[in-house]
Description:
By secondary structure, the chain is α+β, with helices and mostly antiparallel strands. It has helices at residues 49-57, 64-79, 85-113, 117-138, 159-184, 189-192, 200-206, 210-215, 222-225, 252-275, 326-330, 334-338, 346-353; strands spanning 4-9, 21-26, 29-35, 43-44, 147-148, 151-152, 294-301, 304-312, 318-324.
Amino acid sequence: MSRPYTxxxxxxxxxxxxxxxxLELEGERILGARLLPFPEKNSWxxxxxxxxxxxxxxxxxxxxxxxSLCYIQAVERAGGWEVPPRGQYVRTAMLELERMASHLxxxxxxxxxxxxxxxxxxxLRLGHSVLEAADPLLEAPFGRGLLKVGGVSKDISPKADxxxxxxxxxxxxxxxxLSSRLLKGVPVRPRIEAVGILGRAEALRCGVTxxxxxxxxxxxxxxxxxxxxxxxxxxxxxxxxxxxxxGGRGDVRDRLAVRVGELSQxxxxxxxIFEGLPEGPLATEPLAPPLGATGWGIVxxxxxxxxxxxxxxxxxxxxxxxxxxxxxxxLTALPDLLVGNxxxxxxxxxxxxxxxx
Length: 357
């Protein structure tokens, strides 16, 4: 029997291990796992709302639009500013496009972690198709410069309807084929089934959110439980693994099944948004906020719940900002996910959690 040893990961192999880990192993078996401290920007003091938006948008991660929208929502609620319905619909369209692009990126990372090259390239190709559709939607690279306090600064372009309808025809078959290859394919299934199991009770105890929570059987989605923007006009049901090809264990395969299922769901939501797009202004002019006003933003981002808090001073500047990212919630489950698995399983387990900061 080999002697136990310690292994540090996450500094020289950040491409596949995006967080610093200390693992206790015996042979290839993981006996213990600990997340090491790492820098994460989660607070600041006294900047203008516009400068704050640039800081938030520039943070690393695959959910820049959802993160920026959460910040804007917090500022709007602090100032008591309302967003017109058309502005809400435009925001919701971008949220769903970002969800699709983010899920496809993390599916590609999962495929890379298990050496499934054809799945990697297919996911990246589909992700590129989504990004190409987003560009004519707003005539800007994926929502750049779109958000502002009180609404949005750009309307949906005339090309958008044609692009979304093209996606509605071409992508469902692509998503179904990708789902079949990933969830039922012989080369993939042994690497993701019964790996990184997080049961429902453990998921509730750890407070995980997003696809990680839904992959463990928790019927929770902020788009339904706390519908902001245009989600109050759209029926959204949480996607669970048993309904999208998973096995109900709470393993890597189930978390993958949730993301694959949400791809088709996001496409259906986009079609509803374009069919019900209301007329009217895109934004309202914000008024001076009361001194010391506070606001809380919460958005169902692609990889989990994004929470931000702001306090405004009498001049409308953000005097305090604090944040809890999806990664901060989901990585609390890391020991439960890793212990008992093999060293080779670390990369696919982390890709299935999709740590976003």
